[in-house]
Design goal:
Strand order of the largest sheet: 2-3-1-4-5
Oligomer: single chain
Largest sheet: 5 strands, parallel
Structural class: alpha/beta
Shape: globular
Helix content: 40-55%
Radius of gyration: 16 Å
Strand content: 5-15%
Length: 190
């Protein structure tokens, strides 16, 4: 029996991987999944890949004595995703571009899409996510109460250079992940 028989078959292909990034609460994973559901393209959620590689959650990984291993796992997971064929849609967590080596790996090897929102919108969305999923882990936000507009503005400013390197910027406004996926696909001609 052919293992790929029941697997999704892409209705389109990408010349290079598509990497979605955004601030905390931007919904990069959900948008990437929605694009993949409509195109059959492979999907890589780098945070989930890291958890599988580590054998524990990101939160548990951060508490281990070798917490610096996260960066090593991040680089490995990103390298694997960037080499994957057919080219995937990659969701990169909000902390993924803090590492200069990861930024260099993406430059030229992928189309980088920034899901933009201002700090007020991101604070509302991140806070809601953390309330709905108390076990969700954002290293920069301890809990829903920490997801304030001031804190999100600070995080956006820290990452501004990485976000400005994006090939394409999409304002998430109050759009759903499906609406954003359709908008992104239209902009990319998929």
């Amino acid at each position: 029996m052919d293992d790929d028989y029941y697997a999704p078959h892409a209705t389109t292909t990408l010349a290079q991987p598509l990497v979605l990034i955004g601030g905390h609460g931007s919904g990069a994973s959900q948008v990437a999944q929605a694009v993949c559901a409509r195109t059959g393209l492979p999907f890589d959620d780098i945070d989930r890949v890291i958890e599988h590689m580590a054998g524990c959650s990101l939160a548990a990984l951060s508490l281990r004595p070798a917490a610096g291993r996260h960066v090593e796992l991040l680089r490995t997971a990103l390298d694997q995703a960037l080499r994957r064929r057919p080219c995937p849609v990659i969701a990169l967590g909000p902390d993924g571009l803090r590492d200069p080596a990861c930024r260099r790996r993406i430059a030229g090897a992928a189309t980088l899409v920034y899901l933009y929102a201002d700090a007020v919108v991101l604070a509302r969305r991140a806070s809601a996510q953390l309330r709905e999923q108390p076990t969700r882990y954002y290293p920069a936000l301890v809990d829903a109460g920490a997801a304030t507009p001031a804190r999100l503005a600070e995080l956006l400013e820290e990452r501004r250079g990485a976000y400005e390197a994006a090939t394409l910027t999409i304002d998430i406004a109050d759009r759903s992940p499906i609406e954003l996926a359709m908008l992104l696909m239209g902009r990319l001609g998929l």
